[in-house]
Amino acid sequence: VLFDLETGGLDPDVDDIVTGTVVMVPARPVGGGPRTLVTHEWLAVPTKDIPQDATDVHGITTEYAREFGTPMGTVVDEMTRALAGAMEAGATLIGMNAAFDLTFLDRKCAEYGIVPLSERLPNGIRPVVDVYVIDKGVHPYRKGKRNLGALCEFYGVTLDGAHDATADALAAGRVAWALCRDYPDDVRNVDVQTLHDRQVAWKIEQSRSFASWLRREAGKLDDPVERQKKHADADSIRPEWPYVPRAVPEATLS
Predict the structure, then answer these.
(1) pLDDT digits (tens, 9 = 90+) for 178-231
(2) How far is CA 158 from CA 36, 151, 162, 168, 221, in A?
(3) Rounded distance, CA 221 to CA 219, Å?
(4) Computed from CA positions of residues 193, 128, 114, 25, in that sequence, does the dihedral angle turn out positive or negative?
(5) Confidence band (pLDDT; 50, 70, 90) for 34?
(6) Using an 8 Å Cβ cutoff, are 104 and 75 in contact?
């Protein structure tokens, strides 16, 4: 099951979900042949104006969403039910930077009094394949961007209409397929539950590395205010995956 959101900003505690998609990918038919995808798409009525910089990314205006959207609580409930149903039936959730989308969904569930995905599944939100985390895990020292467009270019897969939730979800699925193709020992031949646990460890190391880099950059700054801000950014990094729980752990990355 492929999952992606487009949002009104980057803060799941403040910003709205704008659009979302859940794409069900069935098992390949016996004897081969194409799979018939089942796509569910949502447009949510915003609770506040969609910022222009967000509209510039995904193309959805406040006026359009208010005219054609579905109430936010309904969107969050239906989306969570769709994901839970797929995963209860044995699906693996695939996404790009899945912790962003799953954390957004978790916060909106809390806001609207909806049972979150983590509580609907007996073993929590697993298994998840996050192409962003896996790419960094198998290519930790590669230079350059690691957004979805860059990953599609690097792995030679199609991205039709970036920042459309369905297009992005499908592209993440193609990148996951390419990772299986290119890294059989690290991805394809690994039990998906083991791969999930491996990503948990990768994410911790990736978060620790990024926090260390921010602190090194802070040490280069002369302005004490900017230096303090860099340290605050480092301290705010949360390594939990595949979503960030609302409770803040006592330990921080060092």
Answers:
(1) 999 999 999 999 999 999 999 999 999 999 999 999 999 999 999 999 999 999
(2) 18, 10, 10, 10, 41
(3) 6
(4) negative
(5) confident
(6) no
